[in-house]
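Q: What would this chain look like folded?
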Amino acid sequence: MDTHDTFTPVEPLDDELREDPTLAQDIKALAGQVRTFAEAELAYQKARASYLGSAARTIAILGVVAAVLAFFAVMAAVMGTVIALGPLLGPWGAMAVVTLVLLVIAATCGFAALSKAKRTKAVLGEGAGDAATR
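A: My prediction, written as structure tokens:
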């Protein structure tokens, strides 16, 4: 059976819809569509914000747990190093060597951060042209 030969368009039931809509009807329909779109967009953004809040909380908790565990691991390594160097240098010598090494590492990281901050400030600040020539 060929449906192309038997197709007849469905006529609107309302006589008003058979004619071309007026400008007022078009504006009213457009306003309804805009309202529907705005409500859907608001619902979407609320759902998105809720998901983001939940994900941010989970990320923050996991980050704090990771930082705490990393801190304890570093402390265990420091204590292990002091204990391992104790027989060679004595307890005070081992503590001094480990402390000095940690201070040198901290100072190196601090100076690197300071240098990076100065470069970033130069790029973002008024001296952007100066930073490009360095």
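The chain has one domain: 12-133.
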